[in-house]
Design brief:
Bound molecules: cytidine-5'-monophosphate
CATH architecture: 3-Layer(aba) Sandwich
CATH class: Alpha Beta
Radius of gyration: 17 Å
Strand content: 15-25%
Number of helices: 9
Strand order of the largest sheet: 2-6-1-7-8
Number of strands: 8
Length: 227
């Protein structure tokens, strides 16, 4: 049995199930899980609070450099701290969600994030999820999974999550999610694409247990291949 602590990268669009899979997997393996989207969200929140222009790359980088963004992995997902204050719920709200996908297009903002994410995962024993983990943060990850699902299904899942906290209409949630996806997939820098060598898993017709089974089978196959 290979006991080496792996780096597991999970990428994909919103609503594909990345966070649920990453936290379950981390719990099962005794690894930490890192939700990199929460870092972009935390920076976006600070930009909202300080009225920084989302178009201004240099202002956003300066803002990042004087920010203290901390992710605390827990069994329920990541606790997010911005300058020492808990913002876990706040960063999930609509205005910050929208802002995160705008601040994340800038190459120098991404470089700042990627450097920190590499540092957080370098010792292995990590399930890191986002949009560019297999392509940019850890192209050499032991396991790279691209988790996808049909847009209608992803929109529906996102709506169910948000409807517990907000008063948004399903059509609005789906429209916003599509716009955000489009921005993530078409940005020139680090667009959302499957990494070279990634296993693509479509969760459209799968429940979480079935997704977990497939993910665990992929990991077991890699461990056998590398032992
Ligand atoms: O994953 P989550 O929905 O929290 O991510 C919020 C936004 O942050 C995404 O829409 C995307 O624009 C950006 N992001 C990114 N790269 C990552 C993670 C998130 O560009 N690795």
């Amino acid at each position: 049995m290979n006991a080496r602590k792996l780096i597991i990268a999970i990428d994909g669009p919103a609503g594909a199930g990345k966070s649920t899979v990453a936290s379950r997997l981390a719990r099962k393996l005794g690894y930490i899980n890192i939700e990199t989207g929460a870092m972009y969200r935390a920076l976006a929140l600070k930009a909202v609070e300080e009225d920084v222009d989302f178009e201004s790359e240099s202002a956003l980088v300066a803002l990042a450099e004087r920010s203290h963004i901390t992710l605390e992995p827990t069994t329920e997902g990541n606790r997010v701290l911005l300058d020492g204050l808990e913002v876990t719920q706040r960063v999930r709200e609509r205005d910050v969600t929208e802002a995160a996908s705008k601040v994340s297009v800038h190459p120098r903002v991404r470089a700042w994030m990627v450097a920190r994410q590499r540092q957080m995962g370098k010792d292995g024993g990590v399930v890191m999820e986002g949009r560019d983990i297999g392509t940019k943060v850890f192209p050499e990850a032991d396991v790279k999974i691209f988790l996808d699902a049909a847009p209608e299904v992803r929109g529906d899942r996102r709506f169910r999550q948000q409807s517990t906290t907000g008063n948004t209409k399903p059509a609005a949630v789906v429209a916003e999610m599509r716009a955000r996806d489009q921005r993530d997939r078409t940005r020139p820098n680090s667009p959302l694409v499957p990494a070279e060598g990634a296993d693509i898993l479509d969760s459209t017709d799968l429940n979480i247990e079935q997704v977990m089974e497939r993910v665990e089978a992929l990991i077991a196959a890699k461990q056998v291949a590398s032992s």
